[in-house]
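Internal tracking record. Fields below are filled automatically when a chain is submitted to the structure queue. Please do not edit lines marked as system-generated. If the sequence contains nonstandard residues, flag them in the REMARKS field before resubmitting.
Queue: standard
Priority: normal
Entity type: single polypeptide chain
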Amino acid sequence: MVYVLLSGGKLVRSAIPGKYAGHKGYKIFGTLNCKSGMRMKKENRVFFLDLESAVKEGYRPCKLCKPLGEQDFLRIKHLIPYPNLETFYDSGRQFR
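SYSTEM-GENERATED OUTPUT FOLLOWS
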């Protein structure tokens, strides 16, 4: 099976499925079983291989499903301009 993931600003084919889904317009990502994510239109949906990929594309985590824990945040902290996990969840704006 072939999957399509967002990586480097482009949709790329992958033999590995994405672990996270995001909304292209709102630049929010969450788990694959997030209720908000399941309601979004398919044409607005993108997938990411991992947390790092979503963050590098400028997406913030969903406040409903909370895909990041404290350990995840510490692992990717070098990629974001927020001092703690709470401010990252509340950011609501794009960043690079």
